[in-house]
Specification:
6 helices; mainly alpha; 3 domains; 157 residues
Length: 157
């Protein structure tokens, strides 16, 4: 007696798809593992080279310097002198902090661990508000653009 309307179980029907996705996931896992291995070995090589050649630290600020220099030249060519002066002043102030970070990171030996201090409630609330604003403006940048545009229009009118 022949069987009518025989159907394969659902697990057997989706077996080719499971095999296909398992092979894809395996390939992605292998490639990402190889990529992270290459990244870690190149990072170790770069760290060893930097520690063997401490003079290279002197060139770290040059990339930022040249990019800011081109921005300032562009601002000056567009007659944005006030913006250029503000940019130069903030760069001079931040230069002190960058040099201090390099000094502490590479040339000073820390004998104690840096511990976190308890933050007051006001600073915690302020930090939370600023972080929330950054997240909102990152997700919806049009809010920031429209508010700045309206502020500029109010100043011009």
């Amino acid at each position: 007696m022949p069987m009518k309307n025989f159907q394969l179980p659902e697990q057997i029907i989706i077996l080719p798809e499971l095999i296909k996705w398992f092979l894809i996931a395996s390939a992605v896992g292998i490639l990402s593992g190889i990529g992270s291995g290459i990244l870690l070995s190149s990072l170790e090589w770069a760290t060893n080279w930097r520690q063997a050649h401490l003079w290279i630290i002197a060139f770290l600020p040059l990339a930022g310097f040249f990019s800011k220099m081109f921005l300032f030249f562009s601002a000056i060519s567009q007659s944005a002198y006030f913006l250029s002066v503000i940019g130069i002043l903030t760069s001079v102030v931040s230069c002190f902090y960058y040099i201090r970070i390099v000094q502490v990171t590479y040339f000073e030996q820390q004998s104690t661990w840096i511990t976190l201090k308890k933050v007051s409630k006001e600073i915690s609330v302020l930090t939370s508000i600023v972080t929330l604003m950054l997240i909102v403006f990152f997700i919806h940048p049009n809010l920031l653009i429209i508010s700045i545009h309206n502020s500029i229009l109010d100043l011009c009118i």
